[in-house]
Amino acid sequence: MTAPVPSAVGSSLLRVSGLRKSFGEHVVLDDLDLEVPEHGCVVLIGASGSGKSTLLRAIDLLEDVDDGSIELRGVDVADPWVDADAARARMGMVFQAYNLFGHMSVLDNVTLAPRLVHGRDRAEAEDAAVEMLTRVGLADKIRAYPDQLSGGQQQRAAIARALVNDPELLLLDEVTSALDPELVGEVLELLAELRREGMTMLIATHEMAFARDVADQVCFLHEGRVHESGTPAQVLGDPQETRTREFLARLH
Ligand code: ADP
Ligand code: MG
């Protein structure tokens, strides 16, 4: 008889297996495997060009892949037969450049997807948007336009936009890299709070102190593969692979 499976351990919300992606001759994702447990926080680190953004874009189905699977709760959403829009609607993604629409108020930026993608009516979408903007500390900026906000406020608005549809998975691609140093903290604090609330997250970042604080697991990407992974203490504090050590040494 087999032992019962412990149920306290979060099952895989996301399981990426054998992912391959080339741009022409250039192999960018090379048989990559990765798992994010439900309520888990996995942080991707690695040199520029190691494939972090391509991986996040592939998971969000913004990038076709050549081979492999991307399972969301056991269903391969990279399968061409799967409705990509429906799968994408279950994920929220935030990019390095906030990508807010400059000609729309903050409120309209946040209600756009609920109305267009999720078919909610305006009043319902606005209620949800106001709630989410309040949660990210922008209750007083609802009617403002992006150019009236600081970079940190714009990025918090972009996070509100990604959260408003209640995603099962939040994908964050170097969301503090474009910010002035004094604005980084407020965005990282918001992410740490989301993490405490149990949001499942996959985060590419160069902020190692943040990774150490929030990650359950750190994955070091090198040449399109997860070269080393483990707890922050293992990967950041006691890396086993030469490439990982070299990467971390270059940051200091
Ligand atoms: P990272 O986010 O870790 O810096 P990326 O995923 O952005 O890495 O890029 C990985 C590699 O893929 C880089 O060499 C980059 O030049 C290449 N790449 C990314 N997107 C494209 C594209 N659309 N066309 C051609 N090459 C690309
Ligand atoms: Mg990138």
UniProtKB/TrEMBL annotation:
It is a peripheral membrane protein. The keyword Cytoplasm does not apply. It comes from the Bacteria. InterPro entries: AAA+_ATPase, ABC_ATPase_HisP-typ, ABC_transporter-like_ATP-bd, ABC_transporter-like_CS, MetN_ABC_transporter-like, P-loop_NTPase. GO terms for cellular component: plasma membrane. Residues 14-248 form the ABC transporter domain. It is found in: Cell membrane. Coiled coil: none annotated. GO terms for molecular function: ABC-type amino acid transporter activity; ATP binding; ATP hydrolysis activity. Keywords: Amino-acid transport, ATP-binding, Cell membrane, Membrane, Nucleotide-binding, Transport. PANTHER family: AMINO ACID IMPORT ATP-BINDING PROTEIN, GLUTAMATE_ASPARTATE IMPORT ATP-BINDING PROTEIN GLTL. Belongs to the ABC transporter superfamily. This is Amino acid ABC transporter ATP-binding protein, PAAT family.
